[in-house]
């Protein structure tokens, strides 16, 4: 178990680095989204990247060279998710230029982590979970293309890699939490008359929030 001071310092440093990276990409994010929405001007991506970075440090249990690959994988995902949430809220799109590179990035870093730890089963489970969620989301998108887009399908595979690395239980929790959170948001928006039955609701933020809930449970448990 890491000394609390070391863990706190690591979490603060990781959060600061992730926030700085997200802030440096602000102009690029607006260009990719092709929008100047208030969601992209609010600094939300910086705050989310910082929170995700702190969570990445806690999840990786940093403090030694052996845990560095995991930290890099989780931190990269934190920055990307921090970017994707406001973009999806602004334009209902999850750009390939952000999502697709996460596949080789996570596979490479988690592959090194498996090599260092000798836990190849975790890497295999991550790959299997990615394929399972890709298949599930593709099927749902095929059945209801107005509810889910291909961007959601691609993000599902990325989150499958992450959650699968943690364990099958967290794949299930993260997936169910995404749909539950999205349903809550839809009900609230309907209740306050900010949406109707035909209003599109960005699903990417709920997917990312669901994965965050599962990751939090893995640490808390």
In short:
It contains eleven helices and no strands. It is mainly α and 221 residues long.
Helix/strand layout:
Layout: H1 4-24, H2 26-33, H3 38-41, H4 44-60, H5 68-91, H6 96-99, H7 102-117, H8 120-143, H9 150-166, H10 168-191, H11 204-220
Describe the structure.
By secondary structure, the chain is an all-alpha fold. It has one domain. It contains eleven helices and no strands. Helix 4 runs parallel beside helix 11, helix 7 packs parallel to helix 9 and helix 8 runs antiparallel to helix 9. The radius of gyration is 17 Å and the shape is globular.
Residue runs with pLDDT of under 50 for 5 or more positions: none
What sort of overall outline do the alpha carbons produce when their principal axes are compared?
globular
- Tell me the distance between the termini: 14 Å
- In total, the number of strands is 0
- Give me the Rg, rounded: 17 Å
Q: What sequence of helices (H) and strands (E) makes up the elements?
A: HHHHHHHHHHH
Sheet having the most strands: none
Percent strand equals under 5%
* Count of alpha/pi helices: 11
Structural class: mainly alpha
Overall tally of domains: 1
What's the pLDDT, averaged over the residues? 93
Protein traits:
globular, 11 helices
